[in-house]
Design goal:
Blueprint (H helix, E strand, L loop, with lengths): L1 H33 L20 H13 L4 E6 L3 E6 L2 H7 L6 H4 L3 H4 L8 H11 L5 H4 L2 H21 L4 E2 H18 L5 H4 L4 H18 L1 H5 L2 H7 L1 H30 L2 H9 L5 H10 L9 H32 L1 H15 L14 H13 L5 E5 L4 E3 L2 E3 L4 E5 H5 L18 H4 L20 H18 E4 L3 H5 L3 E4 L1 E4 L4 E6 L3
Parallel strand pairs: 2-7
Antiparallel strand pairs: 1-2, 3-11, 4-7, 5-6, 8-11, 9-10
Bound molecules: protoporphyrin IX containing FE (HEM).
The site of protoporphyrin IX containing FE has 24 residues, from helix 17 and helix 22.
Length: 507
């Protein structure tokens, strides 16, 4: 009898809520039908089989948008998941304050957990406030020596190749360099990853996770299946778990070692360090963990979430930015030479830059910014609407997630003259002053902007300046020189290896 009542109760609940849900779904379909689409959606797959993560698809989509002057369009991934793509700075401004989309970021959650990148609400605010001091100017200043030391290792490796007449492969070696940097700066961990070999197992695992996360997100069946089914019953899930094990092993080892060091340091020493503002990022997390008595510190798992988030955000993004930058410098020798002249003017015979030198590298900064305009490492970000809105004259119900197309904004002909041309002088202060601040957002903007942007920008300047001071760069492969395709997989990566011929310069 009780069971009958329970079933009746559940049935009436369904009757109560179903019409509202159906009505919202009908509303969503009606609104989406009014938005431009590149192709009609399949009734079940939507555009899942149509959208490709490749440069050729991105180029096709870009041509379709520019020919038809489209700055907003929609696509479906499956019968229920609708996304609205926004390609204009004013749309960025309208929606950026909305929370991150749980659906889109869920694909990275098994790896990054509810760290700063994924978390929303009061927990995010607490952690952002806790970690902001780790990026204070006083903390960043001495890191310039770390960038220099790590770059010296890269320079020695590249010098050997240059003297042997070999080309160097850029993406993997730069990846190891930025991993070395972030581990030393954020976690005081010396990994020797640059010396170890061709590909670091951690770097490999991260690539595999990014790959599989995108392919799960794009597949309506895998995206809808719960984690247990995905991880234990699908071949893709088995691969994901293997890569996860490797990535988590790496961060757990770092935390364990650092904890042991902190245990050995006396309390007074730690307090003295914090007064000198030289606590690194992991120090701050572990000290917050120590103070957990008042219930507001971080648990061990939360610490791992943040370490995974910072190490990933801190190395892979910067490695991609640097790889694209080196590509453009090698492709345009006259720009490369102008940068080198500026660097040597600032260095005046020294080998390494100081913190105070960075503000003098104005042309080099323009070149870095222009590379991140054409190839922003984080090319799309996704938000969930908290209420229905009207944008660009279109009504968007809150059931649709919005994708802010940073890459599209950066290449929009409505914002940039000759948008596909690499022209660092666009960032000269005289040319940039009247530009809408939301037309250039490689680090996003607003309260959820990139916490590590100054860290990354300083690092990029040191690495580029040191390389240019030592070598001239050249691309021998004419096809790659004409065009190096990108592969949009969580980050905008080069689709092929980039090999540079280096010539050692006299100083
Ligand atoms: C060129 C290098 C970098 C680029 C282009 C970049 C870009 C971005 C962008 C666009 C976001 C917003 C993501 C979103 O809304 O979903 C972001 C967030 C974030 N970035 Fe970066 N980033 C870079 C380097 C770094 C570095 C070096 C660190 C750490 C040392 C870092 C840590 C973070 C964190 C923790 C967040 C989440 C912040 C929050 O939501 O409060 N990033 N980054």
């Amino acid at each position: 009898m009780a069971l009958v009542f329970l079933l009746l109760f559940l049935f009436s609940l369904c009757l109560l809520f179903l019409p509202k849900r159906l009505w919202r779904y009908y509303n969503l379909c009606k609104a989406m039908r009014k938005l431009p689409v590149m192709a009609p959606p399949h009734w079940f797959w939507g555009h899942a089989n149509f959208v490709e993560f490749s440069q050729s698809f991105a180029t096709k989509a870009y041509a379709w948008r520019t020919e038809n002057n489209i700055d907003i369009n929609c696509f479906w991934l499956g019968p229920f998941r609708a996304f609205v793509m926004l390609h204009a700075p004013e749309h960025f401004r309208t929606v950026i304050k909305n929370p991150k989309s749980p659906d889109a970021y869920a694909m990275l959650e098994p790896w990054l957990g509810r760290g700063l990148l994924i978390e929303n609400g009061s927990r995010w605010l607490r952690n952002r406030r806790l970690l902001t001091p780790a990026f204070h100017f006083d903390v960043l200043k001495p890191y310039v020596h770390v960038y220099n030391d790590c770059t010296d290792i890269l320079l020695s490796k590249w010098k050997r190749s240059a003297l042997n007449g070999e080309t160097v492969e850029v993406y993997n070696t730069i990846n190891q360099l930025t991993l070395d940097v972030i581990l030393r700066c954020a976690c005081s961990h010396f990994s020797s990853c640059q010396e170890k070999g061709k590909v670091d197992p951690y770097v490999d695992a991260v690539l595999e996770i990014c790959n599989l996360s995108v392919s799960r997100f794009m597949n309506p069946v895998l995206a809808a299946s719960n984690d247990f089914i995905y991880f234990y019953l699908t071949p893709q899930g088995w691969r994901y778990r293997r890569a996860l094990r490797e990535a988590h092993k790496h961060s757990e080892k770092i935390i364990k070692e650092r904890k042991a060091v902190l245990m050995n340091e006396g309390r007074q020493e730690r307090i003295a360090k914090s007064k000198l503002k030289c606590l690194d990022f992991l120090d701050i997390l572990l000290l917050a963990n120590k103070e957990r008595k008042d219930g507001d510190g971080l648990s061990d798992l939360e610490i791992r979430y943040e370490v995974d988030t910072f190490v990933f955000e801190g190395y892979d993004t910067t490695a991609n930015a640097l790889t694209w930058m080196l590509y453009y410098l090698a492709k345009y020798p006259e720009i490369q030479e102008k940068c080198r002249e500026e660097v040597r003017d600032v260095l005046r015979g020294r080998n390494q830059l100081d913190y105070d030198d960075l503000s003098k590298l104005q042309y080099t900064q323009c070149c870095i910014k222009e590379a991140m305009r054409l190839n922003p490492p984080v090319f799309n970000i996704v938000r969930s609407l908290t209420e229905d809105i009207t944008i660009g004259g279109y009504y968007i119900p809150k059931e649709a997630d919005v994708v802010i197309d940073i890459g599209g904004i950066h290449r929009s002909p409505n914002v940039w003259e000759n948008p596909l041309e690499y022209n660092p002088l666009r960032f000269h202060p005289d040319h940039a002053k009247d530009r809408d601040p939301f037309s250039y957002v490689p680090f996003s903007a607003g309260p959820r902007n990139c916490i590590g942007q100054n860290f990354a920008f300083n690092e990029e300047q040191v690495v580029i300046a040191s390389i240019l001071n030592k070598f001239s760069l050249e691309i021998r492969d004419e096809r790659i020189k004409q065009q190096l395709d990108f592969l949009p997989l969580v980050l905008l990566r080069p689709a092929e290896e980039l090999h540079l011929k280096l010539t050692l310069l006299s100083q």
